[in-house]
Amino acid sequence: MIKSLSKLTMRQYIDLVCGDTSVLTGTGEIVAPAKLQKVRKRIIFEYARLSDDAGSKIFISDHTSRIKAKAELTMFQCLHNALILGAFDDVRNVLKEYGLTRTMDDKQVTAEVTRLLKRARTNVSRYDQAKKEEEKEPTSDEIRLQFDRQAAALMTYFKFQIDFDTISASQFACMVDQAHKQIKAQMAALSKK
Fold it and tell me: How many domains does the chain have?
């Protein structure tokens, strides 16, 4: 089974992105669909990291922020429940660990937890909405067109032909990254003039 981006041609990689996991297996090789999907995701992320490292870091940061928002929502729901049970001192201690060190009476603690709970719900809702918008899967034709446009731009920039059946996906990803870096450097140089 193919487990590395460098082992795929660009044509195979595009097929993989479009959902065809058969490009990962050899003739007669049987692999569990769940494992194929896991390898597919890893290879797609590897391509994204090579072609757009900053975008990959943003993706990871965004994913981490979503998890943190959900954890905060759970924590503030627990604190709200503790307040209903009258555990004001315990809630104060948790809030102190959270970074709220000011002295608060019971009424202020309740107001603060209510405010933080509302903020946490808003954050989770915002992340959930953004995730729904991201989950709109492009069609295979849209994916193929995107790669065709990218290849056309690279061929124009580097002034040579790119054959999806011979170039490896990792080489193509590195070319995308190199072109991006060179264009960015050229724009920076022009802005200094």
Answer: 2
